[in-house]
Amino acid sequence: MAANRIRVAKDKAELVKSLVASKDTTGPFQTYVEVMVFAAALGVKNKKRIPLGETTKREPSPIPQENFASLGYDLIIKLLGINETQDINILSSREEQDEDKRTQIFEEYANGGLEILQNELRGSVDYSERLLLVLISEKGTKEQLEEEFDLSKFLN
Asked: Is the confidence at residue 44, as pLDDT, over 60?
């Protein structure tokens, strides 16, 4: 495992690059870190955790975890570790196997989220617009579920 680095599956490398804003893309994110955090959140929400398989060595190269920490996202990696293992000892940053396990959990959820994005964004020209539609539909689904199961209207 690349020490303290978050890797990207080779089959998702082009997608990750296209999600970062540049002169060649309509990407909605400013950094690879933001792409990976969003993807991991999407993977967790949809309970989609996929092993990486072959990883990319260049563009995007494995992302140092300090980059996550500098943007305040290192806590997400730790929280996912605790949530997944139900073991608070996984936060022991001195233990290499705990660090590797936290990294693996985050990478696999990010990979799951990237797979969802790959399907949602297929054929789309403007990723920002399509992502907004995905988020709106997710929000609508949640509100519908809450309305369907709101028993308080029967308590009058």
From this structure: yes
